[in-house]
Amino acid sequence: MKRRVCSYDMFAVSDPFLRLEGYCCEMDFCNLRCFCVWSVQLAAELTDAEALALAQFMKRVGFQGWRQNAIEDDEAYLMRDGCVKIANALADVGYSPR
Question: Domain-by-domain residue ranges, the chain?
Fold first, then answer.
């Protein structure tokens, strides 16, 4: 599910308070001090073996792994941040390899 959330408290935002459009992008603001970001919530059903293997992979992959598959450093950092969230979700349900 994709939704717009506030960068401050991560609560859903129905319509932006203010939109700034520029040459390369646009940015929505929830109010005068917070901007909106798009958030995606994922749900997947994994077997026990798949969950453990994915948790092991998340533990082993390093910045070089993300960097060689990214266009630039910023994209690699975004990949890392997403993988950390998935690894944390796996740890929350008991898949946290040492």
Answer: 1-41, 46-98
